[in-house]
Specification:
Layout: E1 2-10, E2 15-25, E3 28-40, H1 42-59, E4 64-69, H2 72-87, H3 101-111, E5 115-120, H4 128-142
Parallel strand pairs: 1-4, 4-5
Antiparallel strand pairs: 1-2, 2-3
Length: 145
């Protein structure tokens, strides 16, 4: 079984941001990556972490996996909210345009070819791989300070 942990964040929102992911197979890390942007938002970085991890998974023939994220925004967005956003032509329940639409569209496209189990994990709770991804994120943010 493959597990992917992701994290993203900013120093200020917007501000310098970073993202990171690690991919585990049977509990052992097989890959990780990170990146950042000098001016971005927390939600963009959370989404980017998942998008980049899924790109890696697809390019390496990983088709069934679990995504462990500490972002309710990402988990709920892709598992619950996106269907209604698409029905409403990318509008929220209040009629406003969906923020970060291009990220959601890319994530939605990537998910179509995968069997994904989405898992929310509590951030900053001492979970080894979530903390690892947070460290990657913080190192990326530091590059812009």
């Amino acid at each position: 079984m493959y597990s992917i942990y992701t994290d993203g964040g900013c120093s200020g929102n917007p501000g310098p941001g970073g993202w990171g992911y690690c991919i585990l197979r049977d509990g052992a890390m097989i890959a990780s990556s990170s990146g950042g942007d000098k001016l971005t938002t927390n939600n963009k970085m959370e989404l980017t972490a998942v998008i980049e991890a899924l790109k890696f998974a697809i390019s390496n023939g990983i088709g069934s996996l679990e995504i462990c994220t500490d972002s309710q925004y990402v988990k709920n967005g892709i598992t619950e909210w996106i269907a209604n956003w698409k029905k409403k032509k990318w509008r929220t329940a209040s009629g406003d345009p969906v923020k970060n639409r291009q990220y959601w569209e890319e994530l939605d496209q990537l998910c179509r070819s995968l069997d994904i189990r989405w898992v929310w994990v509590k951030g900053h709770a001492g979970l080894e791989w979530n903390e690892y991804c947070d460290d990657l994120t913080q190192k990326e943010i530091a590059k812009f300070k």
